[in-house]
Specification:
- It is an enzyme of class 2 (transferase).
- InterPro entries: DHS-like_NAD/FAD-binding_dom, NAD-dep_sirtuin_deacylases, Sirtuin, Sirtuin_cat_small_dom_sf, Ssirtuin_cat_dom.
- The protein has ten helices and nine strands.
- The protein has 253 residues and is an alpha/beta fold.
- The chain folds into two domains: 146 residues, 3-Layer(aba) Sandwich (Rossmann fold); 88 residues, SIR2/SIRT2 'Small Domain' (2-Layer Sandwich).
- Helix 5 runs parallel beside helix 10 and helix 8 runs parallel beside helix 9.
Length: 253
């Protein structure tokens, strides 16, 4: 039995023995679905859009001042989600949840792929484009209502004239404090945390795995690039596809 197979067997053992398992996911898992990540070697942050850094376009101040910049950029990166489908990681996590092996998924992603794969206990730390709201009257709108407008190069506005904003967390906005508190509490109770496809550089979410360490749980990190928390990992892999192909072959019922 090869060393890699033995390492996968250890991961399977941890999953079977853990009484409370949580997954924490980042953009790296969605690259397997064809969605570019943000900070990788081909990340979208490396390419300015209309002369502006993408991080600036994703700031609340820029959105309020020049919403056409955000919606023009987001046309390709947020409003074509129907073009993308769950990859092995999303599908296996949904299977693990159904089999009672995974309690929750906390994700930094806004691509809705966990839900599309069938996961039910998904907590989106950076918000979700599934819902939008009017900044003037607070009326709610669905992704299905807004996406056709954006794809038609229109800036979404409410009947009252207010600008419509997706319910994602822009730079300059705080994460939902209640959700963050919930995440720290649950990860603190977790006996096993799977950190998947995250560079663990965006705070405060990137500090969440430390709650598991402080609570005496184990963390497993699977990410193509090194992370600041690698030294805390009980197991460390760099190939998401290989790891989850191995897990997909297992019967988890």
């Amino acid at each position: 039995m090869g060393k890699r197979v033995i390492m996968y067997e250890e991961l399977k053992r941890l999953l079977r023995e853990s009484e409370h398992t949580v997954a924490f996911t980042g953009a790296g898992i969605s690259t397997l679905s064809g969605i570019r990540d943000f900070r990788g070697k081909n990340g979208v942050y490396l390419e300015p859009w209309h002369g502006k850094p993408v991080e600036e376009i994703l700031s609340l101040d820029c959105f309020l001042a020049e919403p056409q910049l955000f919606y023009g950029w987001a046309k390709e990166f947020i409003y074509r989600l129907d073009d993308f489908h769950p990859a092995a990681v999303h599908r296996v996590l949904a299977r693990l949840e159904e089999a009672g092996r995974l309690d929750s998924v906390y994700t930094q992603n806004i691509d809705l792929l966990h839900r599309k794969a069938g996961s039910r206990r998904v907590f989106e730390l950076h918000g979700s484009p599934a819902q939008h709201h009017c900044l003037r009257c607070s009326r709610m709108f669905s992704y299905r209502e807004i996406a056709p407008l954006v794809l038609d190069d229109r800036i979404p506005r409410c009947e009252c004239g207010g600008l419509i904003k997706p319910d994602i967390v822009f730079y300059g906005e705080n994460l939902d404090e209640a959700l963050l508190d919930r995440a720290f509490a649950e990860l603190g109770r977790a006996r096993l945390l799977l950190v998947l496809g995250s560079s663990l550089t965006v705070q405060p979410a990137a500090s969440l795995p430390l709650a598991t360490c402080r609570g005496g749980g184990k963390i497993v990190i699977v990410n193509a690039q090194p992370t600041p928390l690698d030294r805390y990992a009980a197991l460390r892999y760099d190939d998401l596809q290989a790891v989850f192909d191995a897990l997909a072959a297992e019967a988890w019922e």
